[in-house]
C-alpha cells in the first residue's frame, strides 16, 4: 500500500464512521476503497468489519444521551444482534470465496434500495405514535439484520432502522441511538471472531480504525445537520462502483 493509498483508506474510514453514525452504509464507502487498493473481496470485508468497530463504538458513545431510558429495550435486543453477528461471521468464513463474490453484489443492491428508501422509512417512524415495542417480530428482525451485518454489513444500520420504523413507536433520534449500539456490537463480535478464524489485513484495520473513530464523533456531533440527500447520493454512487468492481475482478 502506497502512502496515498493509506491516506485514502483513512479518509474513507472518517467518512464511513460519520455515515454509519448518521445514516448507516459506511461499508459502501470503505469496502470498494479496500478493493481498489488491491485486497481480495473476503479479506477486504473481514478487515473492513474489524476496522470499523472503533468507529461504531465511537458513534454509539456520541449518542449516549439518546440511549437513556432504553435499558429494557437494549437488554432485549442486544442478544439478538450478538447471536446474529456470530452466525453471519461464521457464514462468511465457511462459505466459499466464490459465494461471497456472487452474493455481495446482490446484498449491495438491496442495501442501496434501503438507502434510497430511507426518507420514507424515517417518515414512517416519525409519524408513528403509541407504545409498541415490536415484540417477537422485532427480535427476529434484529437477529436477521445481525446475520446480515456479520456477513457483510453494508446498510445494516438502514436495515435496522427500517425494521424498527415499522415495528416500534419511538422518536427517530432515540431509534438511531439504539441502532448505533446494536450495529456496533454486531461489528464487534464479528470482528473478534475474524481475528481468530479469518485472514486479516492489519494495516487496513489500523487505518480504518483511526479514521472511523474520528468520523464517529463527527457524525454524532454534526451529522444531523448534513443534507441526507447528499449522503444518500454519495452512497449510491460508491455502491454502484463497488458492484462494478466486484463483477469485473
Automatic annotation (TrEMBL):
<feature type="transmembrane region" description="Helical">
    <location>
        <begin position="7"/>
        <end position="36"/>
    </location>
</feature>
<feature type="transmembrane region" description="Helical">
    <location>
        <begin position="137"/>
        <end position="164"/>
    </location>
</feature>
<feature type="transmembrane region" description="Helical">
    <location>
        <begin position="74"/>
        <end position="93"/>
    </location>
</feature>
<keyword id="KW-1003">Cell membrane</keyword>
<feature type="transmembrane region" description="Helical">
    <location>
        <begin position="42"/>
        <end position="62"/>
    </location>
</feature>
<protein>
    <recommendedName>
        <fullName>Probable membrane transporter protein</fullName>
    </recommendedName>
</protein>
<dbReference type="InterPro" id="IPR052017">
    <property type="entry name" value="TSUP"/>
</dbReference>
<keyword id="KW-0472">Membrane</keyword>
<dbReference type="Pfam" id="PF01925">
    <property type="entry name" value="TauE"/>
</dbReference>
<feature type="transmembrane region" description="Helical">
    <location>
        <begin position="229"/>
        <end position="248"/>
    </location>
</feature>
<comment type="similarity">
    <text>Belongs to the 4-toluene sulfonate uptake permease (TSUP) (TC 2.A.102) family.</text>
</comment>
<dbReference type="InterPro" id="IPR002781">
    <property type="entry name" value="TM_pro_TauE-like"/>
</dbReference>
<keyword id="KW-1133">Transmembrane helix</keyword>
<feature type="transmembrane region" description="Helical">
    <location>
        <begin position="99"/>
        <end position="117"/>
    </location>
</feature>
<keyword id="KW-0812">Transmembrane</keyword>
<keyword id="KW-0813">Transport</keyword>
<feature type="transmembrane region" description="Helical">
    <location>
        <begin position="184"/>
        <end position="208"/>
    </location>
</feature>
Amino acid at each position: 500500500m502506497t502512502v496515498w493509498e493509506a491516506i485514502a483508506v483513512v479518509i474513507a474510514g472518517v467518512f464511513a464512521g460519520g455515515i454509519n453514525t448518521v445514516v448507516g452504509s459506511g461499508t459502501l464507502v470503505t469496502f470498494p476503497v479496500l478493493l481498489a487498493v488491491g485486497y481480495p473481496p473476503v479479506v477486504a470485508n473481514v478487515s473492513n468489519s474489524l476496522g470499523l468497530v472503533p468507529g461504531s463504538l465511537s458513534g454509539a458513545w456520541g449518542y449516549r444521551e439518546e440511549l437513556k431510558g432504553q435499558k429494557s429495550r437494549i437488554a432485549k435486543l442486544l442478544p439478538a444482534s450478538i447471536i446474529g453477528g456470530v452466525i453471519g461471521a461464521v457464514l462468511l468464513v465457511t462459505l466459499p470465496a466464490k459465494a461471497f463474490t456472487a452474493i455481495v453484489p446482490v446484498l449491495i443492491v438491496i442495501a442501496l434500495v434501503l438507502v434510497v428508501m430511507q426518507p420514507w422509512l424515517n417518515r414512517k417512524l416519525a409519524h408513528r405514535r403509541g407504545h409498541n415495542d415490536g415484540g417477537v417480530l422485532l427480535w427476529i428482525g434484529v437477529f436477521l439484520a445481525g446475520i446480515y451485518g456479520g456477513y457483510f454489513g453494508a446498510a445494516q444500520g438502514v436495515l435496522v432502522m427500517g425494521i424498527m420504523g415499522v415495528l416500534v413507536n419511538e422518536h427517530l433520534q432515540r431509534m438511531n441511538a439504539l441502532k448505533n449500539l446494536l450495529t456496533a456490537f454486531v461489528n464487534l463480535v464479528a470482528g473478534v471472531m475474524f481475528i481468530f478464524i479469518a485472514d486479516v489485513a492489519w494495516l487496513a484495520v489500523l487505518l480504518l480504525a483511526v479514521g472511523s473513530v474520528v468520523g464517529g464523533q463527527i457524525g454524532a456531533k454534526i451529522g444531523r445537520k448534513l443534507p441526507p440527500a447528499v449522503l444518500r447520493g454519495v452512497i449510491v454512487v460508491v455502491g454502484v462502483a463497488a458492484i462494478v468492481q466486484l463483477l469485473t475482478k
